[in-house]
Specification:
By secondary structure, the chain is an alpha+beta fold. It folds into two domains: about 5-175, 60s Ribosomal Protein L30, Chain: A (2-Layer Sandwich), CATH 3.30.1330; about 185-230, no CATH class. The chain has nine helices and eleven strands. The protein has helices at about 5-15, 20-30, 35-50, 70-80, 115-120, 125-135, 145-160, 165-170, 210-215; strands at about 60-65, 90, 95-100, 105-110, 170-175, 185-190, 195-200, 200-205, 210, 220-225, 225-230. The strands form four sheets. The chain has a five-stranded mixed beta sheet with strand order 2-1-3-4-5. Strands 6-7 form a two-stranded antiparallel sheet. Strands 8-9 form a two-stranded antiparallel ribbon. α3 runs parallel beside α4. The protein starts with 6 loop residues before the first helix and ends with a strand. The structure holds zinc ion (2 copies). The site of one zinc ion has 7 residues, from α9. One zinc ion (ZN) binds near residues 192, 193, 195, 211 and 214.
Length: about 230
């Protein structure tokens, strides 16, 4: 017997139950904000237009996200293409945009209209003010102010679901070139730290396998600032 753990999510996508989907994404994302809601909406547009309902196990449908902000969590939960199942590609260009594509390259790109975030907060200057003070400038607010920020931000998040798609997004058919299936590499044991590591990430030192962390060579790190290169300790 095999189960499809995303069955309910797929059903809600087909029904267009955005509210249910946003509540679900909240479990992953930890809060409700406008961009996570926009990630849900963009994904539903792409999934429906491509008629792709992913289970996240076959890697035949991939999502490309162009930002590592809240939007991407909406995309991961809704499309089922995630960091861990190798169906997510991160293109570090800092745009609120996602592409859903089949392995053949046929895809749909959904991008947030330039100027939309400004028009979104123009409707709600309090949200903009609270965001500027407590998130952008990292000022310390009173517990009441922080709660207010959460409430206003949550309201704005659910509000996104009611705004017509065409006011928020540009949608285009695209053809993308995608990598082949993620290879499965054997594990080796690092002669330095004794930990197992993926063969493709190792180095040889005096004929012995050494992990990248121990090798002193550089590797990629993804964090809040985006992708950058870091060096292991020698
Ligand atoms: Zn968020
Ligand atoms: Zn090591």
């Amino acid at each position: 017997m095999s189960t499809n753990p995303r069955k309910e999510i797929q059903q809600k996508i087909e029904e267009g139950d955005l509210r249910w989907l946003l509540l679900k994404v909240g479990e992953l994302h930890g809060h409700f904000c406008p961009f996570v809601a926009l990630g849900v909406k963009a994904s539903v547009i792409a999934l429906k237009r491509l008629n792709a309902f992913t289970e996240g196990i076959d890697e035949d449908t991939l999502a490309i996200v162009e930002t590592n902000n809240c939007f991407s969590d909406g995309v991961q939960m809704t499309t089922g293409c995630t960091f861990g199942n190798n169906a997510l590609i991160f293109k570090d260009v800092g745009k609120t945009a996602m592409t859903l594509a089949f392995r053949s390259g046929k895809g749909i790109r959904v991008s947030l209209k330039a100027g939309y975030p400004e028009s979104m907060t123009k409707e709600n200057p309090e949200a903009q003010d609270l965001f500027d003070r407590f998130i952008r400038r990292r000022q310390k607010g009173t517990p009441e102010e922080m709660q207010r920020l959460k409430d206003v931000w949550e309201e704005l998040s659910f509000r996104q679901l009611e705004i017509p798609d065409e006011e928020q997004f540009d949608v285009q058919d695209v053809t993308v070139s995608l990598p082949g299936h993620a290879p499965i590499h054997p594990s080796l044991i690092c002669a330095e730290c004794g930990e197992a590591f993926m063969e493709s990430r190792g180095r040889l030192r005096d004929g012995k396998p050494i992990c990248l962390s121990c090798s002193g060579d550089s590797y990629f790190v993804l964090e809040g600032r985006g992708m950058h290169i870091e060096r292991g300790t020698v």
